[in-house]
Amino acid sequence: MQFLTLFALVSYVSAILIPLNSFSGTETLYRVNKTSRVYIISNSPQDVLQSLVLSTTTGAQNSNAYSLSVPQNDGSLTAFVPTQDNDFLSVVFNGPTKPEGSLYMDSITQNLNVFPLQENSSINFKQGTNVFFKMSSPNGQIAVAQNVVVPQNQKLSGYVGLPETPNPVQFFDSASIDTITTYNQLEIPMQVFHFTSSDANVKYEVKFAARSGITIGSSGLIMTDDFPSGLFGTNDYDLKNQNGINVDAIFVPRLDKTRGYGGNITVFMTTTNLEPTVFPMLSPADSNITSNSPMSRIVVESDGPYAIQYFLRDTTVTTPSPYESTTKSSSFPQIIASLLIAAIIRF
Ligand SMILES: *[C@@H]1O[C@H](CO)[C@@H](O)[C@H](O)[C@H]1NC(C)=O
Ligand SMILES: *[C@@H]1O[C@H](CO)[C@@H](O)[C@H](O)[C@H]1NC(C)=O
Ligand SMILES: *[C@@H]1O[C@H](CO)[C@@H](O)[C@H](O)[C@H]1NC(C)=O
Ligand SMILES: *[C@@H]1O[C@H](CO)[C@@H](O)[C@H](O)[C@H]1NC(C)=O
Question: Which residues form the signal peptide (predicted)?
Answer without folding.
Answer: 1-15
